[in-house]
Design brief:
The complex is a heterodimer. Chain A has helices at about 5-20, 25, 30-45, 55-70, 75-80, 80-100, 115-135, 140-160, 160-175, 195-210, 215-225, 240-245, 255-275, 295-325, 340-350, 350-370, 380-395, 400-425, 435-460, 465-475. By secondary structure, chain A is an all-alpha fold. Chain A is globular. Chain A starts with a helix and ends in a 5-residue tail after the last helix. Chain B has helices spanning about 5-25, 55-60, 65-70, 95, 105-110, 135-145, 165, 170-175, 175-185, 210-225, 265-275, 305-320, 345-365, and strands at about 85-90, 115, 120-130, 150-155, 280-285, 325. Chain B has a 6-stranded mixed sheet with strand order 2-3-1-4-5-6, sandwiched between helices. The longest helix of chain B has 24 residues, at about 5-25. Chain B is globular and about 80 Å long. By secondary structure, chain B is of the alpha/beta class. In chain B, strand 5 (about 280-285), helix 12 and strand 6 form a beta-alpha-beta unit. Classes of the chains: A mainly alpha, B alpha/beta. The interface of A and B includes residues 257, 258, 261, 279 and 292 of A.
């Protein structure tokens, strides 16, 4: 998102808040937010070289959202009048966006001119048939929900594995009659798919576990594509989001000032600090050009702060926009670089992602190992679960060796910290009455943790293993 | 959260902003002074002026603030001192070193030669800038004089002389306030009207471009220090070997080069700006093609008739003004040129440095 996009979205959110605070606005809140988010996912979707893909990907987002809801909804909900109206509303808005091709609004609502109306009607027809089949077959069962999760994971792998993305790009290019020779892994940039998939898997898993509760289609779609959080999170929970959606919004000045404060802080972090640091942060180009280890460390530090300010800046903006619209999105960062150990770092860095993995992978996997493999020692269980969780978090960023190594780096780090804290706890028990020593130890721990994380970013920042090793060698003066 | 708190913060910020702007507007502006800079303090000064069209790859970019450019240059680390002879090389992209690393440029090669005069080392400073305009060179020279050079070597070529080229250099075009006094003082046949400085142009808003450029220049200084890169090296198209048959040069047709359309006034102007500092003029090497139509053209810049007349005129005028001149036009093997008829390969620059160094020492310590 550019700074102009953020300012425009802030203005829209502010005006929307004023409308929502009226009696009519309060009654129409769900519809207003749905309409806005729907327009926003088309508007924010980046332009792509494959013809009409920037129109069809947001439609695909809505398709998987609708299908996931049908897999999680109760029978009565599916056939309710509100569901029909919501579906019609979504279809109508998609159609209206498609019709803008006749108004010459090519760059206003969508990145490029939408496809021909007949094509859109056919697409919507297919979507309607798919939805009808799911309703008719009434497949809201655990097995079908599992299948839904599997489909999302497969889609995820296709989008994150460069070779598969390239193959997919070639395939889509072939369908639309474009040259497959120009296919590239960068052709398919699906706005917010990672976060959409996380939200959908959360609802499907919660439905399987019987924790989901009643969520209308309108609330569900609102939750999944809520525009402030579509591109970079945070990953909210549908139950919590739904509660906020039911609350009335007010014109309370305090909440306005809170919201604008977060947006301004976010803008400053992202567009002043992060974008300036990006000029000197470690990247694949400068990694091999560094002349001395001192400068190498500076580039690594710059990257560590750039990625923090970038990501936490986006989160601040999302939270601020959410506040304007009366939705309190969860926090994602809480001074992570000031934490004295790696476990606390991960409890305060991209918190909603780690909470998601804890809830849907780490805890169930730990339970599974403890119940099925009772002979495994606790240390082995911790090693296996920490390592696999961090590996998955690494792979979520992209299926490359460097993300694997980044995941392993943190998985092993968490394990070592776990074992170390078990070992050191009784030995430090007597330090309670020595606050200065404790403080000094805390400062040392913060520094060690920060440097471990910062060095881990070397794997994250660079696309390949070889230049990463070269940077490590340079940082520690090996071979130079 | 407290709304009153935010209101107070906002009001105080606004007040400070207004005060800061008023200070900027009403405090006298000083030009020609070194600016606050990380260069030569926290990071080493650049060996050549900032210039570049791919900032993120080159850690360098083009800006028009001459003071900021000089402040980032190693020359501004100190003014003249007795422990070195300071030789300033002035000129276009061939001096700046397009496609060359700093140590491969003419200044770099001459520094590598380790010249000394009466036991005092000679240090060469690259003051080239990659656009061809004598007026731009005069402007740079005028600003460079405050760093006490012991010798100025001005490399130039015919392409820098046509009047229409003078303000085509963005650096010259964007500095009318510096060019206009030169035009007036030396009766240069150019029309420059510096924009009137209004209230808004002196505010923070009016100076946002300069401030942003200054900030970017400082940040890229870190990358310059970390990598030693200040140029993005790409594959290039070699300078044309086969040439067009057309004999015109700009809108000039044979047989006579119209001297009134060339800025010969720049020579006495440079001499005057240099004051008592010796000035050595070098007619820089050009590629002499042996390809198609090379009987008509030396290279894609120059038809033979125009270049020959220029050389003759240059020597004559320089002699008349008593400016020592080296005519190096044919010194370099034509295969040692890169993407232009004046850009040399590292080998070409080395050969030029070898040939020039004795002449330089003669000029510096007779």
């Amino acid at each position: 998102m550019s700074i102009t996009d953020v300012l425009l979205l802030s203005l829209v959110a502010f005006l929307t808040r004023l409308v929502l605070a009226t009696r009519w606005g309060a009654a129409m809140r769900g519809w207003v937010l749905l309409g806005l988010s729907l327009l926003a996912i088309f508007w924010l979707q980046p332009s792509m070289p494959i013809r009409f893909l920037d129109f069809w990907l947001p439609v695909l987002t809505l398709t998987i959202t609708l299908c996931s809801w049908l897999l999680t909804a109760e029978k009565e909900q599916m056939r309710s009048k509100q569901t029909l109206v919501t579906t019609a509303f979504i279809f109508l808005l998609i159609l209206l966006i498609a019709l803008t091709r006749h108004l010459g609004w090519d760059d206003v609502l969508t990145a490029n001119r939408p496809p021909q109306t007949l094509q859109v009607l056919v697409g919507l027809g297919i979507l309607a048939v798919l939805a009808f089949l799911l309703v008719w077959l009434n497949k809201s069962t655990t097995r079908w929900q599992g299948a839904g999760i599997l489909v999302l994971l497969i889609l995820f792998i296709f989008l994150k594995l460069p070779n598969l993305t390239l193959w997919l790009s070639g395939l889509v290019r072939g369908w639309v009659g474009q040259s497959t020779a120009n296919a590239s892994g960068l052709d398919i940039r699906w706005l917010g798919f990672s976060y959409v998939a996380f939200r959908l898997i959360h609802t499907l898993r919660d439905r399987q576990a019987g924790r989901l509760g009643d969520v209308s289609l309108q609330a569900y779609v609102n939750y999944v594509i809520f525009f402030p959080a579509i591109s970079a999170g945070p990953i909210d929970k549908v139950q919590r989001f739904n509660k906020d959606l039911q609350q009335p919004v007010t014109r309370d000045l305090n909440s306005f000032s809170d919201a604008f404060y977060r947006i301004i802080v976010g803008l400053f972090k992202k567009y002043t600090l992060a974008d300036t640091l990006a000029l000197v942060a470690l990247n694949s180009q400068n990694a091999t050009q560094i002349q001395s280890n001192g400068w190498g460390w500076l580039l690594v530090y710059a990257y560590a702060f750039q990625i923090y300010f970038d990501f936490s800046g986006y989160t601040d903006i999302a939270i601020g926009l959410g506040k304007l619209l009366g939705i309190q999105l969860p926090e994602n960062f809480s001074r992570p670089y000031l934490k004295p150990n790696l476990t606390q770092f991960w409890n305060n860095w991209h918190m909603t992602l780690t909470q998601w993995f804890r809830a849907y992978f780490f805890n169930p996997f730990t339970r599974l190992l403890r119940t099925r493999y009772r002979t495994l020692s606790p240390a082995w269980v911790i090693l296996i679960t920490q390592l696999s969780t961090m590996l998955l978090i690494g792979l979520w960023h992209g299926i490359t060796w460097n993300f694997v190594l980044w995941g392993v780096w943190h998985g092993l780090g968490l394990f070592v910290h776990n074992r170390y804290s078990e070992w050191v706890r009784p030995r430090l028990a007597g330090w309670g009455d020595r606050p200065r020593l404790q403080h000094a130890m805390n400062v040392l721990n913060v520094l060690v943790t920060f440097h471990f994380v910062a060095l881990g970013w070397v794997w994250f920042a660079l696309p390949q293993v070889s230049p990463s090793l070269q940077v490590f060698a340079r940082l520690f003066g090996i071979g130079y | 959260m407290n709304t009153r708190f935010y209101r107070n913060v906002l009001l105080k910020a606004l007040l400070l902003f207004v005060i800061f702007n008023l200070l900027l507007v009403f405090l006298p502006r000083v030009t020609g002074k070194d600016q606050l800079s990380l260069y030569n303090n926290l990071v080493p000064g650049r060996q050549r002026f900032p210039f570049g069209e791919a900032p993120q790859q080159a850690y360098n970019f083009s800006l028009y603030d001459l003071d900021a450019m000089f402040s980032s240059h190693e020359v501004s680390a100190r003014t003249g001192s007795k422990d070195e002879f300071r030789v300033f090389l002035l000129g276009d992209s061939s001096v700046w070193g397009t496609l060359l690393k700093p140590e491969e440029t003419l200044a770099g090669q001459l520094n590598a030669a380790g010249l000394s005069c009466q036991g005092v080392p000679v240090k060469f400073y690259n003051h080239g800038y990659p656009t061809i305009s004598l007026t731009k060179d005069l402007m740079v020279l005028e600003r460079a004089m405050r760093y006490d050079p012991d010798l100025i070597i001005w490399l130039t070529t015919l392409e820098a002389f046509p009047l229409e080229k003078q303000l085509a250099s963005p650096l010259a075009l964007n500095n009318p306030g510096r060019i206009q006094p030169l035009v007036e003082q030396y009766n240069l046949p150019l029309e420059v009207t510096p924009p009137a400085e209004d209230f808004w142009s002196r505010t923070l808003w009016g100076q946002r471009r300069d401030l942003a450029d200054w900030l970017r220049l400082q940040v890229y200084g870190v990358m310059w220090a970390a990598t030693g890169f200040d140029q993005f090296y790409t594959d290039y198209e070699p300078a044309a070997w086969d040439l067009a048959a057309d004999e015109n040069y700009f809108e000039f047709s044979p047989p006579d080069l119209p001297n009134e359309q060339l800025l010969w006034q720049a020579l006495p102007a440079a001499l005057d700006i240099a004051g008592g500092t010796p000035l050595l003029l070098v007619n820089e090497p050009i590629m002499i093609s042996a390809g198609e139509n090379s009987d008509v053209h030396y290279n894609f810049f120059y038809p033979r008739w125009a270049y020959d007349q220029y050389r003759e005129e240059l020597i004559q005028r320089a002699q008349h003004l008593a400016i020592p001149t080296i005519d190096a036009w044919d010194w370099i093997d034509p295969h040692e040129f890169t993407n232009s008829a004046i850009h040399l390969t590292p080998v070409g620059e080395e050969a030029l440095a070898q040939d020039l160094k004795d002449e330089i020492l003669d000029g510096l310590c007779p």
